[in-house]
Specification:
Length: about 160
């Protein structure tokens, strides 16, 4: 367990390294999107968990989403605005406990830099409403080498007609 003194000295180390208080790139929250709602309006249409993830940049616990093990033909849509985000043919089992894809539908997502863990990660958000979906990493399969690690609660699955 780290005590306050060690934490303070660790923070001084970050400052000395030039990482504390450095300007960070804009986040999705700083951008304007085609679909906008007030916090009260989002709370009316989203569950508490969806609101926490999509609007407050939260993360669901690994292994809790039924979408992690859904492999039927279909499309994964934003739970906030119904934008189609990923197709089932880009989904793979990453073993992380979150639904993972190697590529989004073109133009469906955007990205920004997330500094919550002190080091930068690439956050993925819905290009239509700005809802936080998850993060992308460079350890995925071919053909892209990307792993879009998404929160299942941020999406809904729409089965392919006739499947």
């Amino acid at each position: 367990m780290i005590d306050r003194r060690k934490f303070t000295f660790a923070g001084l180390g970050l400052a000395a390294a030039g990482l504390a208080n450095r300007p960070h790139p804009a986040t999705a929250a700083d951008k304007e999107f085609p679909v906008t709602k007030t916090e009260a309006e989002w709370k009316k249409i989203l569950t508490e968990d969806q609101f926490y993830v999509l609007r407050k940049h939260g993360t669901e616990r690994a292994g809790t989403s039924p979408l992690d093990k859904t492999y039927s033909p279909g499309t994964y849509h934003c739970a906030g605005c119904d934008t189609a985000l990923f197709t089932s043919d880009t989904k793979f089992d990453s073993g992380t406990g979150w639904p993972s894809f190697f590529q989004p539908i073109e133009g469906a997502t955007g990205s920004s830099t997330d500094w919550k863990l002190i080091y930068p990660r690439t956050e993925i958000h819905c290009a239509t409403c700005g809802g936080h979906l998850g993060h992308v990493f460079d350890d995925g399969p071919a053909p892209t080498g990307k792993r879009y690690c998404m929160n299942g609660v941020a999406m809904k699955f729409v089965p392919k007609a006739g499947a």
